[in-house]
Amino acid sequence: MDAVPIIVEVDIAAMGLPSFTIVGLPDKAVEESKERVRAAIKNTGADFPARRITVNLAPAHLPKEGPAYDLPIALGILIASEQLKAPEDELKDSVFAGELSLDGNLRRIWGILPVALMAREKKYKNLFIPKDNLEEAQILDKISVFAVLSLRVLFDHFATDKKIQKAPFKKLKYQALESSEYDFENVRGQESAKRALEIASAGAHNVLMKGSPGAGKTLMARSFSTILPKLTFEESLEVTKIYSVANLLDSDTPIIQARPFRSPHHTTSHIGLIGGGNVPRPGEISLAHRGVLFLDEFAEFPRHVLEALRQPMEDGFIVVSRAAGSVLFPSRFTLIAASNPCPCGFFGDEKRECTCSPGVITRYQKRISGPILDRIDIHVSVPAVKVEKLTKEINAEPSAKIQSRVQAAKEIQIRRFKGTKITSNAEMNNKQLKQFCNLDEQSILLLKQAISKLNLSARAFHRVIKIARTIADLEGTEKIKSNHVAEALQYRPSDN
């Protein structure tokens, strides 16, 4: 996810047959840059040297991919052929990236935000990028960003007085989210499930909703995105980096300000879910980083696909290892899963009779392994909605009101975890649990009884405390009380 500085070296030999060679593990897109660079230099009005040209992309051991090297290669050829005399100090302090069209204009490229962050971190002073990528890099301070229209404009910047104006720093301002077709005020009944989702949103806890078909599981999961807390600036950069690397950024919204909501189909492969491929790309769990991964029909996912979630759910990142090397992708997501209790969907329903045999029900429920269930903080039952609630006009609480409570709880957590690498209660480790979760004697006694009666594992025990911490934050209380622990215990499965 992090950019690496690549030095573009150009040598034009005095002897030898005319040729153009690029070395340093270039991929097909980099190899094809030879024709784009040749045409762009000629159509800009400069001469393309009819000599032996060698371009080296250093360090040589790293594979190079994409068209971003077009601009620095063209600039290097112009300097090496002595058609352009650029100040050496300015070149050393600058980073160049951009794809050239055949007429010399610059096109938008993907992965600019990681490049800009790298340039700032490595203390480079200037960043020259295509104009279409300007908004993506303009939100960073302490670096001068220049929007380049064409190779000719960059040539004039160094050779004449026609300087490119430095782009002004643009502080990121959060925009009001567009109204969604989903809202909790449209959900009839299901008060306990909505309360569970409010807690999950405030503390970034994982949720499994289990209930009959048509009870509202999918509707509530879709509405969940309307009560999520706002992204912080650092979180926004993290998410935008992932989408920039995956080439999924929309030109109209170069900076992602809303938490992602990903909903892959249950036929998704494990590579599509966790990431990978010949050239590793982020999967759904990384695209859901700092947002929501909604897995509808949870039990219908192949078991090996669900088992691949174990380590990312625990660690918040995934390491994809291939023959070419290993890549680390972040995956700190909130899992919202929805499942039917059996194949027909009516096991445990008060009105409709289940037609599945006991063996079929057992096999269906065993599709989700115990270790995966243990990593889910909140288990909630979603029964069929009663007729009275469906037909009666009831003014349910709108998402905006719930979101205000969630945001207040999130602000408490941001202040609590200031100076650490975490931002939510769900991310706390054992040391931080002791530091931030003060339990009174009655709460400790309640937890001791729960461990023996519910057979809680050590992981489940700690997750109960984290949920209780979030419930206390929603109430605005510093100390965790016994009623917070009691409510948190209700979200554990009774047969755990």
Describe the structure.
The chain has 496 residues and is α/β, with parallel strands linked by helices. It folds into two domains: 7-159, Ribosomal Protein S5, domain 2, CATH 3.30.230.10; 184-397, 3-Layer(aba) Sandwich (Rossmann fold). It has helices spanning 28-31, 33-44, 70-80, 88-92, 112-121, 134-137, 151-159, 191-203, 217-223, 233-245, 270-274, 284-287, 303-307, 310-315, 358-365, 370-374, 387-391, 399-416, 430-436, 441-454, 458-475, 482-489, and strands spanning 7-12, 19-23, 52-58, 94-96, 99-100, 106-107, 126-130, 144-148, 207-211, 261-262, 275-276, 281-282, 292-295, 317-322, 325-330, 334-339, 378-382. The strands form six sheets. A five-stranded parallel β-sheet has the order 10-13-16-9-17. Strands 1-3-2 form a three-stranded mixed β-sheet, covered by helices on one side. The chain has a three-stranded parallel β-sheet with strand order 4-7-8, with helices on both faces. It is elongated, with a radius of gyration of 28 Å. The mean pLDDT is 91.
Secondary-structure map with pairings?
Blueprint (H helix, E strand, L loop, with lengths): L6 E6 L6 E5 L4 H4 L1 H12 L7 E7 L11 H11 L7 H5 L1 E3 L2 E2 L5 E2 L4 H10 L4 E5 L3 H4 L6 E5 L2 H9 L31 H13 L3 E5 L5 H7 L9 H13 L15 E2 L7 H5 E2 L4 E2 L1 H4 L4 E4 L7 H5 L2 H6 L1 E6 L2 E6 L3 E6 L18 H8 L4 H5 L3 E5 L4 H5 L7 H18 L13 H7 L4 H14 L3 H18 L6 H8 L7
Parallel strand pairs: 2-3, 4-7, 7-8, 9-16, 9-17, 10-13, 13-16
Antiparallel strand pairs: 1-3, 5-6, 11-12, 14-15
